[in-house]
Structure formats: C-alpha cells, structure tokens
Amino acid sequence: MRNSIPVILLFPLVCFLSSIISILCEPNTLGVCNEKEKHALLRFKQAISDPANLLSSWSMDEDCCRWEAVRCNNVTGRVVELQLGNPYVDSNYTNFMLGGEISPALLELEFLSYLDLSLNGFGGRPIPSFLGSMGSLRYLDLSDAGFGGVVPHQLGNLSTLRHLDLGYNYGLHVENLDWISHLSFLKYLGLGSVDLHREVHWLESVSMIPSLSELHLSDCRLDRNMVSSLGYANFTSLTVLDISLNHFDQEIPNWLFNSTSLVALQISDNQFKGQISESFGQLKYLEYLILYWNSFHGPIPTSIGNLSSLRSLLIGENPLINGTLPTSLGLLSNLEDLYVGGTSLTGNISEVHFTTLLKLKVLSISETSLSFHVNSNWTPPFQLEYLEADSCKMGLKFPAWLQTQNSLSDIFLSSSGIVDTTPNWFWKWASSIQQIHLPDNQISGDLSQVVLNNTILDLSSNCFSGRLPHLSSNVVLLNIANNSFSGQIFPLIFGKTDERSKLEVLDISNNALSGELSDCWMHWPSLAHINLGSNNLSGEIPNSMGSLVALKALSLQNNSLYGDIPSSLQNCKVLGLINLSDNKFSGIIPRWIVERTTLLVIHLRSNKFIGGIPSQICQLSYLRVLDLANNSLSGTIPRCLNNISSMAAGPNEGDFNVLEAYFDYRFYEESLILNIKGRDSEYKEILRYVKMIDLSSNNLSGSIPVEIFSLSGLLSLNSSHNRLTGMMSVEIGGMKYLESLDLSRNNLSGEIPQTMANLTFLDVLNLSYNNLSGRIPSSTQIQTFSPLSFFGNVELCGAPLPKNCPGDEEEETQRSTGVGENREFPEIAWFYVGMGSGFFMGLWGVYGCLFFNKAWRHAYFQYLDDIKDSAYVAIAIKLKWLHQKLGIYNTGSMITKGVYQQVQWHGQRVSVH
C-alpha cells in the first residue's frame, strides 16, 4: 500500500469539499445581489407592463436575489436566471401576461445564462436584436410571447446557446437561416409556426448543427417547392423531429431512416405520399410515430412490429392505406396508443392482434372496414381508456369483452352493426364511463328503471322503448332521439330536484312521448339545447322555460302544442334558434322574438299566427332562416329586410356557435326540416350554409319590396300563395346565389325582368298563376325550366311556353324562305358564294394554261382522243363476247363471227376478231 494516500490526509479534503457543497446548495448564503444588476432589473421592470403585479417583490428594499423569478449564483450573487414565463396555463392566463418593451438594461446582466419570457404578450413587437449580445446565454425561451417581424440574425452570436425556442409567435418570419449553423452547441431548436417559406435552404442550415437533438418546425409553411425541400440531411444526434402541419407532398426522404437515434417522429397534417416504407423498422429507438392526415397508400408495413419501444402509432386519416391490419402489431408490448381510423383497412381483427399489447390504452379504428372476430369469452390483455370503433363491425351481439374493461372512460360504437338487447351487466358497468356513443345501431331494451350517470350519452337512432330513464345530475348531454320511448316526459326525467343539474343538451325528438310539459324547468338552469320535436306533446309552453338563461336553441316542432308564445322566453338572452313549426300556436308573433338580435333561425311554419310581420325583424342582422309559411299573417312585407346583413353576405359567413355544442371529442349539431326547392329535407351539417326566407301561404298583400332583392346571399325565396301585387324589380338580378325562387299564385303583373338571366345558380323557378305579361327573358338558364313554371299567366309568351309572342309568326315565315334563311343565317349564303368562286378559280387555272400554251393544249386533247379510242375498243370487244355467248347474229353489224374486219380509226388499223 505504499502508493495509497493515508486516510488521515483525506479527512481535511473531505471536510473542505463538504463545506463547498453546503455553500452551493444553500441559496445565497454568501453572495448578495449585485447593485448594478439590481438597478438594471428595475429599469427592465419599468419598461414592461405587469397587469397582475407579478413582479411586486422587485423593489429597492429587497435583495434582488430573493425577488420573484430571479435566481443568482450562490457564491457570487450575480444574476444567472430570469424565469419570467407566464406561470398560468389555464383559460385565464392572458390576465397574467407581461407586455410592453424589453429594455436593453438586460445587457448589464453579464452572467445571465437562462432567460424565459414565454407565454406573454408583447403585441407583435420584434425580438430585440441586442439579445444576440448576451454571450452567456445557454437557454432562451421566447415562445408564444406575441413577438413579430423578422427573427434577428444576431441570435447567431450566442455561441454557447443550448436551447432556443421561438415557436408560436405567429407574426414571426425568417428571411435567412444561415446564422443558425453558428450555434454549434445547440440541442433544442423550436421554430413552430414561424414563417420559413422565404428560406429555401432551411434544411442545409439546420443539419449543420452537430449536437442538435430536438427540431420542432411545425406549421412553418414549408413545402416541396423549396430548393432543398427534404433533400439530404445528416442528423446523427436527432431524437425528436416535428415537421407537422406543413405542405410537403412527396415521399418520405430516405435520409430519415438513417437518423437511427430518433425517439419521436411527427410528420402529420401534410400531403406525404407513397407507401409507408418497411425501413421504419430500422428506427429501433422510436417511441412515437405520428403519420396521420397525409396521402400515404398501400399496406401498413409489417416491419413496424420490430419497433419494440414504440408507445404511440398514429397512422389514421390516410384514406388510401389499405390491406389488413398486420398481426405483427401484436408484438408491440409497449404500445399505448393505436390509431388507424379513417383508412381503407379491411379484414378481421382477432386475438392475435393483441397478443402482447398489455399497455394499450387508446384504440381508434373508426371509419374503416375492419371487423371484430374474437371468441365470446375472450379476455383482452389490456385495459383500455378510450375506444373508438365507429362504422366497424363489432358483431350482431353486444361485445361481451367490454365488461372486462374497468378503466374505460370514452366509448364510440356508432353504426357498428349491433342488433341486440343491452345485456344485464351493461348499465351497471357503464355507470362510471364518461362518454357513451352508440347511435345508428339496432340496440333495444327498456330503460325505465335505469339511472343514467354518464356525462355524455348518445343512444339516438336505435330501438329503445318503454318509459324514459332517470337522469343523475352529472349528465351533460342526453340524445335519445329516433327511438320508441313513450309515456310522459315528467316526472321521470325531472323528478329529482335536490341537486343542481349539469344538463346542457336534451334531445328526445322523434319518439312517441305524450302529455303536457310540466312547469319545473327552473331546476335545469344549464340547458342550452332542447329538442322535443316530433312527439305527441300537447298543452302550452310553461312559463318556467323562461328561466333557462343559457338557452341557445329551442325546438318543439311537430307536436300539438297550442296557445301564445309565453313572454317569459324573452329572458333567454342568448337564444339563437327557435323552432315551433307544425303546432297550433296562435296570436301575434311576439315583439320580443323579432328584437332578439342573437337569433339565427326563426321557424314558425304551419301554425295559426295572425297579424303582420313586425318591422323590428329587420334588426336581426344574424338571421339566416326565416320561415313563417302557412300561417294567417297579413299586411305587407317589411321594406327594411335588406338590413339583415347575414343574408346579404356570402354563403360561408356568420357565427354558428348557437347551432353547435362542443364536447371533448364530439359535438352536438342542431338540425332543421326545411322546405326548399319544393320538398322537405333535413339540414344538419350544412345548416350553416342555408339562407332562406319563406313567407308562403299567408294573406300578405302589397308589392314585393325592392329591398328584398338586395339580399345577394339568399339561397331560397318563397312568397307564393299570397295576395302580392305590383311588378318584379330588375334588382332581382343581383341575387347571385339564389337557387330557388317561388312567387307563384299571387297577383304580380308586368314583364319578367331580363336581369333574371343573371341568376346562374337558379335551379327551381315558379312564377305560375300571376298576371305577368310580355316575353319570357331569353337565356340558357331560363329556357331549361318547365312550362309549368310560367303557366297561368295569360299574357306571357315565348319559350318555354308553347305560345308565341307577337312578331314570332313573321320571323317564322322569313325562316321558311331563302331570303329569310339568308337573313337569319347569312353565313350559309356566303358559304355558297365562296364555293362558287373557288370552283371558278380552280377551273380557270386548268383551262387558262391550255389556252396560253399550244404544246400543252395538243398533248391534252391527244390524251383525250386516246382515252376515247381505248374506251371504244373495250366496248366493241365486250359486245362481241356478249353476242357469242347469246348466239345472236346481226348481219348489219360490222362484227361477224369468224371474220376479221379492217376498221380505220383515226389513221390506225385495228384488228377486231
């Protein structure tokens, strides 16, 4: 042991190191704030805005090393970190954002190595170029801080920088990225949502950073038209690559498969094409492979089964991916998320596909042609949290294996081909699931004794029957429309009133419910969407409905409800849709309805309303659907309808929040049955695009206001079956989106405006049974309509009616003569003139040459004589043969049997046998 250090000599060294470690671990035991840096920080604070007073501890009285968000070196007391990122990430984070100017006083913090200004709001100000002079920085996070303008190239001077995040500053753009290659120690680069489309050599610049580990370029407007595109790159250290939400429309570059250190690859939301390469199997460290929303085709490569570390495989929303689900996926023992929905996969899914998937939590196979084929007693090795299998065939029977899934929170099995009664275990098992979506199956059962506890429950379009189920206060959405429920609504659903209900959406339309609406709606203050339509309900609307201050949509159509619309509903200040059609409501249209400026839809068709259309309706600038048809309204059409600005705007403009209710993974959409183009159709997904006015089948009088024709965004206008008079305005030609126009069975007079020829989208037209006169405008569009569109107008003439207009007979007579033909078709006369002159010039070209050239003339006529002689001889021989054949002799002929006769023919002797 002669080379060993005596233990006694080590003891002082250990004591010294212990004291140093204790000093370093104890915050600011020796160092105190540097005064110069304290004043610099105070100047920095003075320049920024701090509405939430987050920096209240920054004062002269306190040691700056003890200030909020400031960290100093424990020995020297010099400021090394400023952690000024917004600490609040909830919906109220905007209240705590710093803003204003970033003071150059930061340059006095010579040892600052960490600067975080993320999640703040600097109002589009440029990133200060002086930050490039802060040579000690190793960590710089300016993400989502509201910066704009050009990214300063001076940041390339930060030679010791390890972490740079400029992402999600949506006003930032890069002119040139050459400076990035100077950051040779950089490990993390975040440029998400920074506009890079001007920098065509971005890939070359970034690939020159040898130590780069994470590269985030999501939503940077990158595309294949750049010079480099995704050419060659060498990322030997890269573990994370995110180029999602760009515009690449090429195959995956081969260099990607040489980046064997990759742990996460995110290339979703592009237009990548080609097949998914088997080379993915080489990326043995890959844990996250995200390829959804692209244009890949072909099968899923079996080599993916080699990725033993894979945790998330997201390939969905590539409609051209086909084939079967590889059984090799069953070998991915670490897989937690499998998303292959929205593809063209076919075939069966069996137990083999899940052999070792012990950690699987998310399974999404919706919108494919896959079919579950597992044994009825199968127990899966996994515990799912999320199952999405819409439009997949789960089998006719309810999947028994579901009852083994005790962690499931969301289940989606719409259109899954289930034809079965809910098993006894189902509702008790399902009570802890947050979302259950089972629409468009043939599931049956009696729910009258069931207490529903799910947050979101959609059982619509099935075969459930019996009385309505009970609801717990936890239910937010209940959709049981299009079933066979019967009995009364109350008190089964509304019987429990000791807890505040969270119910926001109630849709029990298209059932067989009866009875009156009880007056207890005040217990359901969160209700925003109510649809009780197409039942057998009777009675009046209860006053307590007016207590629903959150109500956005009220649909009570197709029942037997009667009475006046209660004035209490005017308390529903955010009402956007009211559908009371096909009932027996009476009285005048309440003034409060036409003054509710939030309304998008007023659907009062087929009731017994009387009185006039209130002029206050013109204040409804958001109104898109106005259907007052089939009532007993009288008076005139308001002249101010042109003030309804949403109907004057283009077809895709407006606010549709009142028509939809969004929830975690799905949303509820309102629907309407509207009579457009002469037929009833349901409008749901496209309801937002509908703009229509239907005032038909009333007792309206007066003229059609010119102002209504300025609603250029209108798709359908129907004021038929009234007593309207006057002429049609030429302004009708400005309704450029109009598809359906019905003004039939009124007393309109005058001519049809020629401007109607401008209505190029018009598909349905009915002007029948008025007093219109004159010629029907001539246009390709109008002449395609049936004569029925114009019948009943005695003085109307012209196509497509069989009745001719005055003067049409004279034109017909002229067309039957040559003169007439030439007048109507002058090109025919000129055709014959041209043909005659051409023939003359061609003929003169031949004979002119013969007339002026004697040698040509003699040769030409000698040629004609030779042809004539040859023809004569040929005819003579043929006649001789014919006489021999028939045995007929003619003594007067110069041709005799067995005799040779000499014939002189133009100086030549010809022997004829």
Describe this structure in words.
The protein is an alpha/beta fold and 913 residues long. The protein is built from ten helices and 60 strands. The strands form ten sheets. The chain has a 28-stranded mixed sheet, with no helix packed on it. The longest helix is centred in the last third of the chain and has 33 residues. The N terminus and C terminus are likely disordered.
Largest sheet: 28 strands, mixed
Q: What is the rounded Rg?
A: 44 Å
Oligomer: single chain
**What is the number of strand segments?**
60
Report the β-strand fraction as a percent range.
Answer: 15-25%
Number of helices: 10
Mean pLDDT: 86
Structural class: alpha/beta
The gross shape turns out to be globular
Termini separation comes to 148 Å
List low-pLDDT spans: 1-12, 18-30, 818-829, 881-913
| Helix content range | 10-25%
Essential attributes:
28-stranded mixed β-sheet, 10 helices, 60 strands, 15-stranded parallel β-sheet, 913 residues, disordered N terminus, alpha/beta
Short description:
The chain is of the alpha/beta class and 913 residues long. It contains ten helices and 60 strands.
Q: Topology, please?
A:
Layout: H1 7-25, H2 35-47, E1 48-49, E2 70-72, E3 79-83, E4 99-100, E5 114-116, E6 139-141, E7 148-150, E8 163-165, E9 171-173, E10 188-190, H3 202-206, E11 214-216, E12 240-242, E13 264-266, E14 273-275, E15 288-290, E16 295-298, E17 312-314, E18 320-321, E19 337-339, E20 346-349, E21 362-364, E22 369-372, E23 386-388, E24 410-412, E25 419-421, H4 426-430, E26 435-437, E27 442-446, E28 451-452, E29 456-458, E30 463-466, E31 470-471, E32 477-479, E33 484-488, E34 505-507, E35 512-516, E36 529-531, E37 536-539, E38 553-555, E39 560-563, E40 577-579, E41 584-588, H5 591-594, E42 601-603, E43 608-611, E44 625-627, E45 632-635, H6 645-648, E46 660-662, E47 667-669, E48 672-676, E49 679-683, E50 692-694, E51 699-703, E52 716-718, E53 723-727, E54 740-742, E55 747-751, E56 764-766, E57 771-775, E58 795-797, H7 808-816, H8 818-824, H9 826-852, H10 854-886, E59 901-905, E60 908-912
Parallel strand pairs: 3-5, 5-6, 6-8, 7-9, 8-10, 10-11, 11-12, 12-13, 13-15, 14-16, 15-17, 16-18, 17-19, 19-21, 20-22, 21-23, 23-24, 24-26, 25-27, 26-29, 27-30, 28-31, 29-32, 30-33, 32-34, 33-35, 34-36, 35-37, 36-38, 37-39, 38-40, 39-41, 40-42, 41-43, 42-44, 43-45, 44-50, 45-51, 50-52, 51-53, ...
Antiparallel strand pairs: 1-4, 2-3, 46-47, 48-49, 59-60
Helix pairs in contact: 7-8, 8-9, 9-10
